[in-house]
Amino acid sequence: MHQMEENRFSLNGVFQKTKEYVDTRLKLVKLRAVERSSRLLASGLVDLIKAVFALFVLFYFSLSLGFFLSERLGSTSLGFLVTGGIFVLLIVVVSAFETPLERLFMNLSIKRFLQKWNDELDDDEEGNPDQKPE
Q1: Which residue in 62, 69, 106 sits closest to 88, CA to CA?
Q2: Per-residue DSSP letter, 126
Q3: What is the average per-residue pLDDT within 11-33?
């Protein structure tokens, strides 16, 4: 009888430890998902900030080009008309290569997304100091 109680106690302990292990693994999966999602969100926000600054740079370069051409052509309106024409020409060129450009940007986006998503895996393989060796 005493032997049976020990076996039962041992099995209960195993089930309890298994339940704790599964709960811990679920928490770990959730934490990794949160970390990866926050890494992607942060990366997206940084890219958005860079895009906004790039638009400011483009705007000021456009103004500079407009004023430069105005001086060269002797007419403010003609200088800005030529600058606008350059942008229309760029729109036509981008439209002509729309499908290959879409494919290129899709591939770059997927690559960057997966790189950011898998950064944590690379950190673990390099020997993250927070992780204890097994």
Answers
A1: 62
A2: T
A3: 90
Per-position DSSP letters for 55-111, written without gaps between them: HHHHHHHHHHHHHHHHHHHT-HHHHHHHHHHHHHHHHHHHHHTHHHHHHHHHHHHHH
Lowest mean pLDDT among 7-16, 37-46, 122-131: 122-131
| Residue 32: strand, helix, or coil | helix
Residues in the chain: 134
What is the model's pTM?
0.63
Q: Is there a contact between 27 and 19 (Cβ–Cβ < 8 Å)?
A: no
Residues near 133 by beta carbon (within 8 Å), at least 6 away in sequence: none
Q: pLDDT per residue over 68-104, tens digit each?
A: 999 999 999 999 999 999 999 999 999 999 999 999 9
